[in-house]
Amino acid sequence: MPREPSASSLDLATRLAASAQICAVRSSRPLSPSLHEVWLETSDLAIAGVPGNDVMVLVGQHGDRGVRRRYSVRQTSPDTNSFALWITTHHDGVGADWARSAQPGDHVDVVGPRGKIVLDPLADWHLFIGDESGLSSFYRMAESIEPPGRAIFIVEIDNPDDALTTTLPEGVAPTGIFVNRDGRGPGDATGLLRGLAAFAFPPDDGAAYLFGEYATMNVLKIALLDRGLQDDAIALKAFWRAGRSNQEHGEPEKS
User: Which residues pair with 82 in a beta bridge?
Assistant: First the structure.
């Protein structure tokens, strides 16, 4: 790598008990109308963490301050010492601009691993609910399920071509419900609530993972509680918030 991470990245990594690295773009390509894939080569693949973890990418500058975005790691490749990010690009934003313009050989500051939500090893079935921004984490987590098991995906998409799928381990049964947004505005939970209503909970123990828009995910959590799922079986992570840009550190505003 041609240089060391910025002082701000090194300081951030120290405060977060994470690591900071310069990663090189290995490849960059659109996957669908809403998702773009970037593979980053790293000096230490531990930065990608475990399924459910994300990394903080320095995607721009605001004055003398760096602007970071957090992206879930989609998968890793030990053979090439690299990891993939799936980034939503159907909107205007500094992160989407970075993903679209990334070229092989570019270098970027990355801090990771980040995130506290991981797969519940005691659950018999796993319910993943969200929008396109959650697919990356959903699929990496589901691919790590130990058989026998079950993975259920309820995902809202803008375009039929955004209905990307994956292959799960033998013995892990998949169920996929893709809900067309059909012109509903961001933050409208109607579509995902309909998708959830179409799913009957199995009788054994389950866990739910809600990754997507802030208001929508909070509505879905209430719906899951109303359906009888216990609070400690529901993990929620807001990736973005309708009508507001994420803050400079990559998180949506919480108030």
Answer: 41, 77
Query: Please, what are the domains in the chain?
Result: 7-114 (2.40.30.10), 125-240 (3.40.50.80)
- H or E element in which residue 13 lies: helix 7-16
Strand partners, 25: 40
Structure token pair of residue 182: 């059909």
Measured in whole angstroms, how far is the alpha carbon of residue 88 from the centre of its chain? 10
For 89, which DSSP code? -
Per-residue pLDDT of the chain (255 residues; tens, 9 = 90+): 457 899 999 999 999 999 999 999 999 999 999 999 999 999 999 999 999 999 999 999 877 788 999 999 999 999 999 999 999 998 888 999 999 999 999 999 999 999 999 999 999 999 999 999 999 999 999 999 999 999 999 999 999 999 999 999 999 999 999 999 998 988 899 999 999 999 999 989 999 999 999 999 999 999 999 999 999 999 999 988 875 666 555 567 666
Give 205-249 as a 3 state SS string. CEEEEEEEEHHHHHHHHHHHHHCCCCHHHEEEEEEEECCECCCCC
β-bridge pairing 125-131 and 149-157? parallel
Both tokens of residue 162?
A: 């955004």
pTM above 0.85, yes or no: yes
